[in-house]
Amino acid sequence: MSAEFASMSLFLESEKAQEDFAAKMAKKSNLDLVIFLHGDLGAGKTTFARGFLRGCGYQGLVKSPTYTLVEPYSLSDEKMAYHFDLYRLSDGEELEFAGVRDYFDGQSVSLIEWPEKAEGYLPEPDIVCQLEYQEQGRKIDIYAKTARGNELVLGLLPN
Q1: ∠ Cα 34 123 30 (to 5°)
Q2: Which candidate among 48, 89, 131, 153 keeps its CA 20 to 30 Å from the CA of 64?
Q3: Which domain holds residue 83?
Q4: Is 106 helix (H, G, I), strand (E, B) or coil?
Q5: What is the model's pTM?
Q6: Beta strands 80-85 and 70-74: pairing type?
Q7: What is the CATH number for 132?
């Protein structure tokens, strides 16, 4: 018997609206999450990650880890967040050599752009976000994939 998990779709009319929504999502989370971010180049994956990290209390510069693959962020409550950008990854096995499993310790949040580049080398996500251009803003579809992710998505749905 398979569990049904929550999902939602939103239109975010600006970059600020996207960051604000991601920050709201972070504030409702317990920060023990793996979030996959899907979308074309420029669809707003890094914008979402920046908003999420701000919602976690991080105040420093948030940059795309396109060349470093991962940027670690110390959060105010002594938890860690990891922002991955796997766009330049040629083979998921590269992550194995980089010790990627150490990042998924069940005590941090991982925001992963281009997760399809490392299929089979990443843990199952709690949340999958699909971002796409739409008119002047972005559409975001959010799918819970675990009980933890489901709790978060249900907390974001309007009453």
Answers
A1: 25
A2: 153
A3: 16-156
A4: coil
A5: 0.91
A6: antiparallel
A7: 3.40.50.300
